[in-house]
Batch of 4 targets.
Target 1
Amino acid sequence: MWIQTEISMPPKARGFHLITDEIERQLPDMSAIAVGWAQIFIKHTSASLTLNENADPTVRGDLERHFNQYVPERAPYYQHDYEGDDDMPAHIKNCILGSSLMLPISKGRFNLGVWQGVYLCEHRNRAGGRQLVVTLNGEAM
Amino acid sequence: MWIQTEISMPPKARGFHLITDEIERQLPDMSAIAVGWAQIFIKHTSASLTLNENADPTVRGDLERHFNQYVPERAPYYQHDYEGDDDMPAHIKNCILGSSLMLPISKGRFNLGVWQGVYLCEHRNRAGGRQLVVTLNGEAM
Amino acid sequence: MWIQTEISMPPKARGFHLITDEIERQLPDMSAIAVGWAQIFIKHTSASLTLNENADPTVRGDLERHFNQYVPERAPYYQHDYEGDDDMPAHIKNCILGSSLMLPISKGRFNLGVWQGVYLCEHRNRAGGRQLVVTLNGEAM
């Protein structure tokens, strides 16, 4: 049983955003899968997907501040600078954080830990919407 | 052919631990899969899974020291600090290293390189056990 | 429908290399898959796979320079140093960047963003060839 769909995410501010509910709402067919995987894949090189704490928003703020510190703008060794100071750091953050998540499905739902949530990490200052490819595969209930 | 199981890992000291054998021993059904994938997924936001060198233990020590240097405790920009100095660094390390591994299966075994092993990376000083979801999918032999 | 093959990549210079076309050319059977996944897995602990910008080569140069800055050679805390100054940094970069990519397949092709390409990241100064395991799974057209 294969299901594939593209989801358009509306533009988000630079930073780390919790999107678990937004994704699950768009995957009604997942309820038919007893055991399987859901892949969320972002079709961009300056925004990322990761998993982390779903409760305290200061975790998301600290992540944004940490990556800004260790992947700085205007590093003296950047040659790719004509799209703005936030562009090359965005590419590097994307390589570190990753472009896709593979989530186990059990009994029709993501099988995540109690504290885990899906983050969309927007690395650009003024990005447009972002396209996701979501692919589900599994055994029907 | 889908197989899904949850594995409880006993508590481990802070650091990088080789767990390939511990995982394989708990997956006797993998021997029936000719071609497929095994996913190991950790249901936590302060411990990670990664692959690296399976021979020299100094590699694991150097990884722990490197991540402690570049993801420091008590960074001045952390706001999420009430669960201890090791908490926010643990979340950041988890985002960098990742929460899951997807391993190719060939002829009933993980198809890894000769030097590759599965690491559980424990980022907290005094963590409890950790829960893994292991999902296998493939073509029967 | 499962397809698995091993691909030998010829030796590459240290740095980030765009290999999307090289991979696609070796996967003629992908054209038969309507919906699915392709996994590219590298069987080594000192070279990585990641996705990023497929157009401007300065992005690849900046990535190499950034990772050399933040994963330095001869860090005072390295104990694993007998294979050369580029060895331990190579292991760390591999943990950060990752050993595998899971790409969605749609209508017989990788379903990537317009600007996304597959990178092989060679972290050693004088590496030999690299072995990839490529596994395809999906629904036939």
Target 2
Amino acid sequence: MSEPDGRTPGDLTRTGMALKHDREWDYELDRIKEAVEAHDATFVGLQFPEGLKRRSTAVAADLEQLFDDDITIAISGEPCYGACDLDLDLLRRSDVFVHFGHSPMKESDKIVYIPLFSNVEIEPIIESAIEELSGPDVALVTTAQHMNRFEEMVDQLEDAGFRVHTRRGDERLTHTGQVLGCNYESADVPAPEVLYVGGGKFHPLGLAMDHPEKEVIIADPVNNLVEVADPEPFLRQRYATVHAAMDAESWGVILCTKIGQRRWDIANEIVKRNENAHLITLNEITPDRMQHFNVDAFVNTGCPRITTDDGPRFPKPLLTPGEYEIAIGNRDLAELQFDTFHGTW
Amino acid sequence: MSEPDGRTPGDLTRTGMALKHDREWDYELDRIKEAVEAHDATFVGLQFPEGLKRRSTAVAADLEQLFDDDITIAISGEPCYGACDLDLDLLRRSDVFVHFGHSPMKESDKIVYIPLFSNVEIEPIIESAIEELSGPDVALVTTAQHMNRFEEMVDQLEDAGFRVHTRRGDERLTHTGQVLGCNYESADVPAPEVLYVGGGKFHPLGLAMDHPEKEVIIADPVNNLVEVADPEPFLRQRYATVHAAMDAESWGVILCTKIGQRRWDIANEIVKRNENAHLITLNEITPDRMQHFNVDAFVNTGCPRITTDDGPRFPKPLLTPGEYEIAIGNRDLAELQFDTFHGTW
């Protein structure tokens, strides 16, 4: 069964990336120039999220105008879906390394983080979302792109009579109220409803999977829509995948080598306890890289969103570590829950 | 226009990988065990070429039987197409790192190269190929998999009355008579015909592109066929691609970060001389990683086989450095030639 756009149900690929509004961003070239001068840098690396790579050569060209000819600028061509996903090879090679669009996870003197706050108005969409909220208690969360408006959001909701609950979450999250694709601790507050303000469904669906006890209302200022997040198709798919893996006799245990996604202890424990489980190290986890391995199923200890969102495209069942424990009979199916990342690395 | 197997003409993808005969390999577990003991290793990394990844977990399981429980074995999930393509992350992490199926390009005390020589008989196919050779002078080349039979091949040809010309090539090549996908120096000998012994068309087509003045006869003992390599479809495609790029105003210059594919000087020279050319660093060069970049064409300073063989699948023209010089008018179209790699890195 396919949806009209060719995606199978539950396939979130690119849902958060295809934006209807083209936004203007502040690349903070002055701050980059300062860092280059402070470090006396001759090699500057730039890393952009997938959705902004099309702007990357223009940003590089603008930067080149600011510098002498003896400065080399290189753009990372590696896929980038978060601050957990630093291009380590380019980072090593660079005197100054600029990471755009994500808030810091690893701090280093030579890394400059440029947040790229959205300039989309959020007041009208929150106004619409308020009609969907029962209140009076509501949790408020958003993404790095809209953090600069977080206080405004709180004020608007309080002015409308809501008790707004916010939380910083653990050290993986830079800001109060921020969510990541793999971490929704900022919604661990005493409110039955969560208002998510931001573009796309990637984050609110993760949020709804991680907090099935809460109702997640999406206020999307980019696509101008208000909607309740429905994690059901995903959850059904997770149950189906776990069931499919219950007969597996051999396992590939994927250890992701991205700096913010290495869960070595979890991967190692699985292979030490199961002689039919083999460790596979990999940077970018894609279906074609898994196709040659002669195992019945995979456990992915890297990004949980690869597992839940891209998993159906893999040639064999792809499970989170928690789902693996269910599949081999160590835990009950009722214990199935969303896989999250805590800490930095 | 598609060929029966769904490939477009000139698309060599996987032609050398899909083997009709299933071969047995000697993984030399004893030699690995010796290295592990000599290094007192607790972490062993294994890297297999794409076509042998399906055997990787079985090899890991066999190795685990030889060791105590305190030794961890990890398999590289990264794509691997040659000795130029070492998994540096896993190499760093490993006390002993085993690379299967390619002859050494980087020597290091902790790297063990296991050649995986083919056990396929070569005498009958050379017998057939001899009928196609004019003689008396013939160059003889083969791949790493068949190097253990090279002397037999020479003897068989000499016994049939040929003057056999062999050469070691430059330091990128380990053995006399060996070819790589990017280096055919071993065919630089005074003979108008080259006999290539080995499976698939990947190597002989590169050879024919690099040596258009010679006739390349393929003796394929794996698929049991003798054929003359025809590089024409490729050459036409290269001309078409260069033409398509002649109007390009902006360029992405890809620097491959694989250890044996970094041609930094070439990439840097291009971006320094062309203000509309921007440096993009990348490990695995694939069409989907290039799709977001807003440039008119790309120059690939990494593996030339990505350019010639996979290039047609890219969203924009993908040129070798030499082709780029033609496209921007620095060289004449008649100077078009196959891009080769020399030295190691």
Target 3
Amino acid sequence: MTDSIRVSVVQLDEYGPWTVEPAPRRETDLQALQARLYADFADFVGRSDGYAFFNRFDNMLGIANDVDTDEYERFQERVRNRYPVTVSVGVGERETPVGAVEAASRQLQVAGSAQDPDRLEVLSAGPTTDSAGPITVGHFDIVGVTESFTDTEHAAAAGLEIQQSMVALKRRLLAEYDSIAQFVGGDNMIAVCPQLSEDAFGDIVDHVYDRTGVEYQVGIGSGATAHVAGGRAKRALEHCRETGTRVHEAVTARQQADD
Amino acid sequence: MTDSIRVSVVQLDEYGPWTVEPAPRRETDLQALQARLYADFADFVGRSDGYAFFNRFDNMLGIANDVDTDEYERFQERVRNRYPVTVSVGVGERETPVGAVEAASRQLQVAGSAQDPDRLEVLSAGPTTDSAGPITVGHFDIVGVTESFTDTEHAAAAGLEIQQSMVALKRRLLAEYDSIAQFVGGDNMIAVCPQLSEDAFGDIVDHVYDRTGVEYQVGIGSGATAHVAGGRAKRALEHCRETGTRVHEAVTARQQADD
Amino acid sequence: MTDSIRVSVVQLDEYGPWTVEPAPRRETDLQALQARLYADFADFVGRSDGYAFFNRFDNMLGIANDVDTDEYERFQERVRNRYPVTVSVGVGERETPVGAVEAASRQLQVAGSAQDPDRLEVLSAGPTTDSAGPITVGHFDIVGVTESFTDTEHAAAAGLEIQQSMVALKRRLLAEYDSIAQFVGGDNMIAVCPQLSEDAFGDIVDHVYDRTGVEYQVGIGSGATAHVAGGRAKRALEHCRETGTRVHEAVTARQQADD
Amino acid sequence: MTDSIRVSVVQLDEYGPWTVEPAPRRETDLQALQARLYADFADFVGRSDGYAFFNRFDNMLGIANDVDTDEYERFQERVRNRYPVTVSVGVGERETPVGAVEAASRQLQVAGSAQDPDRLEVLSAGPTTDSAGPITVGHFDIVGVTESFTDTEHAAAAGLEIQQSMVALKRRLLAEYDSIAQFVGGDNMIAVCPQLSEDAFGDIVDHVYDRTGVEYQVGIGSGATAHVAGGRAKRALEHCRETGTRVHEAVTARQQADD
């Protein structure tokens, strides 16, 4: 069996034009709309043990092996009945996260431009299997962030330094490991990866430290769903926090996932 | 009269520990919680024509000249009655946005660590005036983003490239112009600035293009509140989109703001 | 095969005490909390084609044949991670809606009082089958409500008259037909019923008219889930609105439901 | 100074047609939409120490002496930017709550029918003063409800019996005392009243007991805003719960309100 991962891209339809028609809408209303739509999407995929990444807010990512394509119709219906905007959804499944995002994005791109007024509520999927999985999740955070940043630097400077190191981390994961990553608040970054060794994660953490001086630790977990893999990664990260280890993989994760 | 700007830092109390006690909580639930709390904060400051930046989600920023310190008690009450977490709020007012964030952050830092179990629901403000304002807002977006990124690159790559250029933009604004900035979705970045010339904004856009190859345009507006200034900035940005101008300031903005 | 219907009772744990400790909480915050929790519950059962009734808000009902008992754990987890309160859930399945509510309520009552501080996050189900269904839904509304009430009476008087007739309708359904009903906004009442004839619905509508002078029309539908049955009922009600018929059953509903 | 009270009626525009076009929308989505819109309205008036009544959901009431007419524009803007529906608002101020609801309703009725496709986002107010207030609030609940209903009867029967007594209570308040009332969850009813004596409240409680056999207790408070009056009423109700008194008025409420 080959590993595979199923990803969805959720794109707001004609959102740019809507934000300025008939006149520019109030910024806090737009921010609140995007945040609530993301929260709803997180709830939606979370119901099936998936993960959601806000990405650019108007283009969100779902990592959801257990959500069938037609279940997204229910999400599209909910958005249509709850918000003044609609969404299109592309679904892709491939061996790597980046491959899956490419496949899902392609589904939407071939259906038309994101600002094409006729491209509304598209739902389009490439080939999927019944056996997507397992997934590997790396949950990163910054060693000693409260002491080093939150309690000592002002909020904007701390936010920027953290964000810069996150971009370096994300870039490394994407370019070298076909992995996708998302800042998930505070000093936390979650990566969805193909099967990678602890050594690979060690190299990633070292690379970011060399480039930015910010030291990350990472817990690693694998499982049939993002939630299961991510839960193991979080517990592995707790182990790092307690022991000072920089990289820790939940030991039997891969074997368990293969069950 | 000296310009001044009032900023609030909203910090979740003991949030890190809460997310892992008694066991790590489901990631999508945490994501949804943070996003909804941010949406509520955006609504709250938006009611008084302010702006909200999600920053790190567990440390949000409010740009809200017209929100008095004691009004934040109502926000703290609402959070306490609606969420399983509470928030502390620091308020600062200074001549520049960065100065104000420093002052607001300092209010919280002197009250105790963000992870101090006894530091709950702090509300603390430095000196404020009755005459905060005016504010200058720069609303940036990327020239031709739909054609260059959304419709041609996969969602994760497009997201990363945009994010990298945003970090360069944010860094420049913070380091050279005492300004704070926030990615607000899509390809949009909003900066809150001291009074800056069109030339200064031109230099910023050029700098980011030189460093990252991503070309921004920016609309600039000033006004008594973030909403008024930001509304003018958005309309100025519409002018950029229509004419191909890279930098445009709402002409009478500063004069109007002085009224 | 015997028809059966599966119902859940969702009860806020120790909610009364919480609303007044350490001091009475702001009423609008409590109202907003209850309404959002209900909206979330509606979304939750709606995902599986169920219906939600707000009932007393602190005791809500779910009509959800396709939600297994263990899926409610996910709802309990979501509430715990999102709100300052928790919920207990009882599940019952019987031949009639009232029987199912009794069975579900009993599950909670045997676990302890709603205000027992030790009775938190109970999840308890009586016997359930794999073949719950079909369900019959009656969707009632008031003939000519906009002309008779909304546009001619003040909002409080119109609300009271409508509510009085709804109580009469609900009482009749409960006492004579083992059915449960819920006001769902405007002039709409939804009843979940055992299999009843059009004549029975006609008697119900006549009874309410005799008692209160308010004339209802009703669309009737049956199906494997509340959503399917209710969708047919809504379309049947559209038929009433168009033709002036007071009672209309989607013709092949029962047969289709038996498929 | 004559007492006066300011009330708003918030009406969803063309909501009935929207719920069935192009086809009947999913019931749980409608329920969730209405509940969230109500929660947002409660937050909105709550920010200014007002109260919100859901009434019929598509026709809500705001008791908000301190919300000026033009502030409702902000609420209308928020709804337009957040939901797929819009709202019209009528504002009225009179000596009694019923008078104020009549005045507010009239503002909308003269503007056109609730289902007139051209009557969108109306905002219309009758004469208002700068000195609305004070307000008297009666907070009622049922003596021993947990033992008598929640823990002993099934959820649907308990809900119905409570609702029947609430309708009797509401009817009495409306018909005899020019007061408006709303079920606010559990066994709680909140009434907004002109200045009434403790004896009058005693008569009301007796009347409902005679008619329905359900025994209420009531705490009474007055104040400049619904929140202040309601807070006093809640504390007075706590006094009833502790002492067994059926009617209790916060002693200095009226005097304090006159300050």
Target 4
Amino acid sequence: MASPTRQALQLRRVAIDTYKENVAYLHRDCHVYRSEGFQALAKVEICVEGDGRPVLAVLNVVDDEAITTRNELGLSEQAFKQLGLPEGTPATVAHARPPASLHAVHRKIGGHRLGYAEYEAITRDIVENRYSKIEMAAFLVGCTETGMEREEVLDLTRAMVASGDRLDWEEPLVADKHCIGGVPGNRTSMLVVPIVAAHGMLIPKTSSRAITSPAGTADTMEVLARVELPVEQLKDMVHRYRGCLAWGGTARLAPVDDILIAVERPLSMDSPGQMVASILSKKIAAGATHLLIDIPVGPSAKVRRQIEALQLRKLFEFVGDRIGLHIDAMITDGHQPIGRGIGPVLEARDVMQVLENDPAAPRDLREKALQLASRILEFDPDVRGGQGYALARDILDSGRALEKMQAIIAAQGEPPAAPQLGRLSKNITATHDGTVTAINNLQMARIARLAGAPLDKGAGVDLYRKVGEPVTAGETLYAIYAEFDSDFTFACEAAADSSGFTVTTDSGAPRSRA
Amino acid sequence: MASPTRQALQLRRVAIDTYKENVAYLHRDCHVYRSEGFQALAKVEICVEGDGRPVLAVLNVVDDEAITTRNELGLSEQAFKQLGLPEGTPATVAHARPPASLHAVHRKIGGHRLGYAEYEAITRDIVENRYSKIEMAAFLVGCTETGMEREEVLDLTRAMVASGDRLDWEEPLVADKHCIGGVPGNRTSMLVVPIVAAHGMLIPKTSSRAITSPAGTADTMEVLARVELPVEQLKDMVHRYRGCLAWGGTARLAPVDDILIAVERPLSMDSPGQMVASILSKKIAAGATHLLIDIPVGPSAKVRRQIEALQLRKLFEFVGDRIGLHIDAMITDGHQPIGRGIGPVLEARDVMQVLENDPAAPRDLREKALQLASRILEFDPDVRGGQGYALARDILDSGRALEKMQAIIAAQGEPPAAPQLGRLSKNITATHDGTVTAINNLQMARIARLAGAPLDKGAGVDLYRKVGEPVTAGETLYAIYAEFDSDFTFACEAAADSSGFTVTTDSGAPRSRA
């Protein structure tokens, strides 16, 4: 059914957001629907005469002419945007040819080892929207831990790099850092970049927005500066200031990853192989030559045991070595949130306090940033082994890191409006005397998200106590901030349900409801 | 987020058919969408006060009040029907709790062996619509051939039976038959049932409609009689006439299978384990005690090699033995279509010709039906081993099978209108002299489907030549029938592209374009 049908339909934009999945809407009485023997959920290929690539979509059948008439071909927002043509354009629709690389996915599911050419074909078909969500799920499940050898992770990484563009900074040492995530408030990039750039090392940091967390580096940086920069402006400022803190979405870096995430997230699939390929392909595409990876370990972090962290580190190193990316993977303490704030405005406050050497600045955030920065500084052949930490501390204490941050903010541009802390707030207090013995990362992230973070930048959680600190009954453990009433209610309800804090009495008995 | 939100939305039916996947539509400016931090493709739980079970759906975000206003909760046809309440009913929406059994799916993906309790939890969650398509895909991929032990196939079969209702015929011997599919025109059930029922053996045959083929037994039987019968009428007529040829969808037999098929089909996943569990759970739920399974083998059939057919047979036998279902699995010749007609009207014609002992009746269909019927008749302890064939032939030749078929048709009721052969037709002819050496099942099925089968009952393909028969240039190989112009054009184009016939010249050189 590759040949388009003679009877064209008129394109219509259907204002339905189907996220990463293209959907086409055909009226049940449309002649094409009848004659093609389509069925709902079938994959179709949409072609416009004279236009190059067909757009692939999943079919939904419509019985309401207000949505799509029998002479129209409705397209969801995503599909309409991808086609990029005005409403009314004549288009034809036909059964989609199954992606040729699906054969390789079936081989992978059957327990075979795939080679580079197969991973390359799969990632290309995914980027071209030839895979449905269920086909992507089949691929991801076929590639889980037990099913993927490390050479395959290497091939997949290479294929993911090849799926998009690649930045070239034309310098021998391009530093980058990445945290695998799972610990709220862990906003070290906004400290590491100014420190490292102030030293003169190139560190063009591009970050993502939050996917499941209450804030990503891009969300938090956006409190202070614009982060959506055209690639040319990005390149220019990086050469001038040695660093940036921008959103990576404007460059087409390993785009297959952005598509797969739509399936990984709801499936909670985060197999080591996929994670390593995903992170390293983005960093290689971004032009990095030296990469520091932060692997936090803790009972409520993404990686829960030391042994898993070690295995993950070895996999990063294996792929990095073979692909020509120097990797330093650091296993860090992830047993509680870092800093005080959780949510963009609150995290930006923490970061600025550290840069400004404010006595109120959270010490754990400062300390972790210095540790990470010192390891990156030691990538520099001129920095003596073991001297990185003193160098990083000197750059921070002297105000040179703050100065560099201000230069980066000025270069990226002020944000349209400075976001404020949410107008609604509530203090969550301790129910009894004792010592804080645990703070659950997942529950704190959940409360901050319910409060509205990261969409409402001023929403979130501000921690007044950390693990090891004493607390008396009635004292504030943390404050919740929100902008909207309903968000506020949800976040407070969740905190009432489970505060996320464990306060152990002097007798040693933990009480989960602090 | 199990607790419903306070602010209810008004239910609205959105006339979009999303097949087996519930979709909920929320306007982007709806307060619930904002406050809940939803994202498109998130799974949500829809609750109505005072009503029992929540309905699960995938979220699409709408920017057009003509589809869903900001005070409404739009539901796709399927979701609206499942909720079963009028438009305007106040309903609340919340994040869906992930199905608890997803943990078992992750274990399966991780290479573990699951037990009955886990398969039972998974099938229950699927039947309750708690799984998204991608979660079902993850489950199916995790259960492929390499990953499923035969004890697990047994557990999955049991769990699928438990997911729905079970018919009890209150007789010690309830016969049934099933073909695993892949060979067009293989309409033996409509001959086997009257023969076996005429002998007095109970054979309450329920069938499906075509999913990927040009006709299922239910589609073809519908040319002659009504097939959608209430369960009570079905039971009554089976007790009176010893058999039926009805659609199985009215009884809730292993309903999880009907849901999984929405994912299996587009993924072309037909692993032996899934196939065996799917078929046997339906048959056990339908009350069968003795089952004949037809496994056609051929280069363009579902099973291509003898060794695979044998493995499949052994898996059927293993599960059947342990679950108390007597199984006789027959490996049959599937190298070309059976009979002449492909498509409901044409296949019904073939069946009636055989029953009427018409000299024009296709001999291969008659012969295969007698072989299958003889094996079922020998389930009867009173039929001497080796006498089944003679008995079946006698029932057919004497007209008792025809008589039984007429009684079954009368009991099920005449169809509202007798379907006719499609008004458009074209003969596909041989391009050169020679002998037919192959007919491709897949291509013949595709041409018949393009012509409109099974939706247009009169559409299809009528074979004039079979493998081994001589043909001279210009002679008709087959005729295409269609009702609609566009279908007709498509089918003819597909036949011009590849006729599906291989005609070998006397010199022995095959030419694919016959």
